[in-house]
Amino acid sequence: MLYPKNSIDKLGFTEVKELIKAHCLSEMGQQMVDKIQVMDKFDLIHKFLSQANEFKNILQNDAALPIHHFFDIKSLANKARIEGTFLTEEEFFQVHSSLSTVFAVIAYFSEREGQYPNLEALFEHLPIEKTIIKKIEQIIDPKGKNKAQCLAGIGGFNIRHCQSRAGSQEKNRSDI
């Protein structure tokens, strides 16, 4: 880069990042802001400016995005993959709420297909199994409370146990 090493400080880059962080809805958003760096590649700058412009257009001219809940579910997915571990009622609710928000945002852009191509591109290769929400709904009610027939003896929830009780044929814990 041709710029002086202290140009980031002179431009107030760090202060701008902190202002953005203050408006994040979740810790995941704050972590993404921490990853923002100065760019010097035109293609990337153009891509991100186009996305920002489309998002600004949504904020000014369109219905609000259906953003309600964002929880960090990566750690919960990793926990669910470990044999012998169970997600708690609250953890299932967090997974359900987060995935419901993701699907609502995807539906928002599907309804406006072609209107926001740069933002739509963010969802093109999102590997989420939609049936997982139905599986979670077999375990918890809309308020996040366990359904009595799915209570495992130790206070946690066993996906396999609940699925067999609900008549499900699938017993693959890796869906979570």
What is the element layout, followed by pairings?
Layout: H1 7-11, H2 13-21, H3 27-34, H4 42-61, H5 74-81, H6 89-111, H7 117-120, H8 131-137, H9 159-165
What composes the largest sheet? Answer: none
User: What gross morphology would you assign?
Assistant: globular
- The stretches of 5 or more residues where confidence is low (pLDDT under 50) are 150-176
Instruction: Estimate the strand proportion.
Output: under 5%
Instruction: Bin the helical content.
Output: 40-55%
Number of domains: 2
Number of strands: 0
Using only C-alpha atoms, the radius of gyration works out to 21 Å
How are helices and strands ordered from N to C? HHHHHHHHH
Query: Count of helical segments?
Result: 9
Summarize model confidence as the mean pLDDT: 80
Class from secondary-structure proportions:
mainly alpha
First and last CA, distance: 43 Å
Descriptive report:
With 176 residues, the protein is mostly helical. The chain folds into two domains: 1-38, no CATH class; 74-175, no CATH class. The chain is 52% helix and 0% strand. The chain contains nine helices and no strands. It has helices spanning 7-11, 13-21, 27-34, 42-61, 74-81, 89-111, 117-120, 131-137, 159-165. It is globular.
What's a quick, concise take on this entry?
By secondary structure, the chain is an all-alpha fold. It is 52% helix and 0% strand.
